Amino acid sequence: MTTTDSPQLPATPKGPPSRATARRRRSGDTERGFSRVFRWIATGAGALILATLAAVALFLLLRAWPAITASEEELSSAVGRYPEGTSLLEFIGPLIFGTLLAAVLALALATPVAMGIGLFISHYAPRRLAQVLGYLVDLLAAIPSVVYGLWGFLVLAPVVKPVWFWLGDNFGWFPLFAGDVSATGKVLATVSVVLAVMILPIITAVSREVFLQTPKLHEEAALALGATRWEMVRTAVLPFGRSGVISAAMLGLGRALGETMAVLMIISPGFLVYSLQILAGAQHQTIAAYIALDFAEATGLAVNALIATGLALFLITMAVNMIARAIVARRKEFSGAN
Question: Which part of the chain is the ABC transmembrane type-1 domain (predicted)?
């Protein structure tokens, strides 16, 4: 029997490592040290966000607790707008309703337009024109809320009055357009249009970036199979970007829920009314606008009542974001992003 000798590996030289080896070791140790530091910083930043959120929730709860536990008589004597025989929930309920109604209408107006602008910039417009439009959309997000409020109060409200009267005359049978149309134009419908313009750049910017991340192979495969440009967008781009568009819409909804000055400067406030008549005056009010309107003159228990309404807005915002995260997580596996 013959045996084949295995090749001998060169012996590892003994002694101190070379300069290159020592340099590589020091570099590896430094990189591992930087990785640990970055991990600690990232962990601390995440913990800081959670701690800040918990601190805000605790502050709101503690400051709102006197109003939550107060009797109806105490609240009615402390809060000027508070009617007798009304619980705190009955008082906050119409404010919540007005806030949600204005935000949902603004989202319904802004989302289709934002998706169209995002698709045009990402897949239809020439490159130079797309860059200019992208800059203009981003510039809209930098306009202060007060400017939007002035524009809605001085420019938009007079312009849309004939439109609201036409809707009231021709579609008065529909609950949203029923009732007496306000002659000033300062109604929830005008507020919804202004809020839609305000959240438009947020939804557009996020949707545009999501559409641009669609894999080129998916688009080219659809075109190679004979699809038109719109069929390619419908079968490849929109399914891929569905979860991103939902996230963008929820970001815009959060901005609309918390908007204060634009709403305060335009709407004619109404209290303790659950009304779908968005063309009628003095029917609605939002939580943020109500707090801004009354906080300067509030004292004692009235401040606690205002903070209680702020707590309600905080909980609504948290619920909206949790629902959005659940929708995105459920749709992500069907979007093609994986």
Answer: 96-324
Count of the separate structural domains present in the chain: 1
In a domain, 47, yes or no: no
pLDDT at 13: 54
What average pLDDT score do residues 226-255 get?
Answer: 85
- Cβ count near 297 (within 10 Å): 8
Look up the pTM and report it. Answer: 0.81
Residue 75: inside a domain: yes
For residue 31, tell me if it sits in a domain.
Answer: no
| Cα 284 from Cα 269, distance rounded (Å) | 6
Phi and psi, residue 46, nearest 5°: -65, -40
| DSSP class of 297 | G
Longest dimension (CA), the chain: 111
The residues, ordered by sequence, that sit 6+ positions from 308 with a Cβ below 8 Å of its Cβ are 64, 67, 68, 88, 92
In the block, which residue shows the tokens 């084949």? 4
CA 186/CA 193 separation, integer angstroms: 11
∠ Cα 277 167 155 (to 5°): 90
Supply the range of the domain harboring residue 185: 70-332
Structure tokens of 284? 């609605």
Residue 49: inside a domain, yes or no?
no
The tally of CA atoms less than 13 A away on the side-chain side of residue 27 is 6
What percent of the chain clears pLDDT 70, i.e. is strictly above it?
A: 86
At 85, which CATH number? Answer: 1.10.3720.10
Calpha distance 47→33 (Å, rounded):
21
